[in-house]
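Bumping with the actual sequence this time:
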Amino acid sequence: MGWNLLLLLSVFCLLNRSAFGGVARKKHERRLVGLPGGTAANAALPPDQWLIQRLDHSDPTNPGTWWQRYQTNDAWFKNARNSPVFLMIGGEGEASAEWLVNGAAWTIYAQKFGALCFQLEHRFYGESQPRSDLSVESLKFLSSEQALADIAYFIQSMNEKYRLSANNRWVVFGGSYSGSLAAWARLKYPHLVHAAVSTSGPLLAEANFKSYDEVVKRALAASSPKCAANVHKAALAVEDLLKTPHGPSVLSKKFNLCTELDVSNKKDVSNFAESLAGNFQGVVQYNRDNRMADPKPPSVDDLCKLMTDGDEPKLIDRYAAVNRLLTNGTCLDVKYHSYIEEMRSESYDVTAGGRPWLYQTCTEFGFYQTSSSRNEIFGSLFNLQFFIDQCKDIFDQSFDQNRLNDGIRRSNNNYGALGIAVSNVVFVQGSLDPWHVLGVTKSTNPSAPAILIDGTAHCANMYPPGPGRPSAADGGEGQNRTDPRRMVELGRTMDSLQWHCSALKL
């Protein structure tokens, strides 16, 4: 019962990784989650289906409509009076049907409870394109509020299509941004959404997200205290070398830049430093998450070995070795202008979700992972203004700090931030995930329990079971999910999870 219950109350992340090429695509790729490692290679994927949605749910006088993509798996649906309905909410990437077939983690729960399963793609991502382009005029119809209204209308439409009754209760799932949407859907539409599982969802909108790198530092130090110290020293060595006459040329060669670094362009320098930090940020965020990948992505331990082991005396060369590993030997384009030009494209095909997601951060959330002091692990070269300037340079000059602050204030007021008043929601976070500090990790509300799983990263517990998953007892490295010490810890969470099964009457 213990493991089945744990599986039921976990949710995989809904976002998928594309084959990225340009600068903007690569930046956005760091946010996205991989495919489930348990999906059979020959599994038949559910076909795409389409639903007419309103363009603007907030304006009843706007007659505009568009086609939203969704997918269905009814293979386990008992069609009984009380069979549940599971909805996976799409986030800031394309919705991939692999998550709906046998092998994905959530199908274990669907089979157990005979659930009807859907996945709904988020407006302005993937093939769900409300307007013909991604112009600012089009993107004014992109917001979390519009996405939540899409979910509500989708549920109503499926209730009619499948002749579902009030006894067929809807449970929504989501991870990362869509984990936030899952909690907010229950908050805003409790008459439609009976329960939610919110995984790795940032609920507090915040412009200057400095605590992200504080978690990265702790994760590196957990692997090796020397590792975190060496990364910090290497970042400062880069800063110091930038101030020397030959430093830019030396750095350009060491880090295999596509063009020589122009230190007179401060935004190029910030982009360079932020790209090097991103090497570590991405690995920490998705450390050992059991995604479908061959070979498996590098782990925190792999990077820390490069930063600590061997005879290489210069830390800056170790820093460069990490960059070579993460870029697979391709040159690193740090020209700010290249990134801006790519992000200015109003085509859906160019940034694979990067432009619409940046729009949402500029207007609703912030979430900018800044580093503006030499005391911080990645140094002082990319502050908040660097990210605000991107909003202004990509969209227009009105996307300034005032607009950002107004949007963040509105989001937190609208949803309640970390004080969200909601029931029938399970909040799940991983201690190694830098995003957990913006989510609910403690709760005194028995109908909205919070579970912080020690030693796991962003959405890691939502992938299919398998060897090599992080162990809570040993800090997250190299143990199987059947580790008895992990079983003891997970057993302690059962009391806070029991409400879910009883609420569903399953």
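The tokens above came from a reply further down the thread. The longest helix spans residues 266-285.
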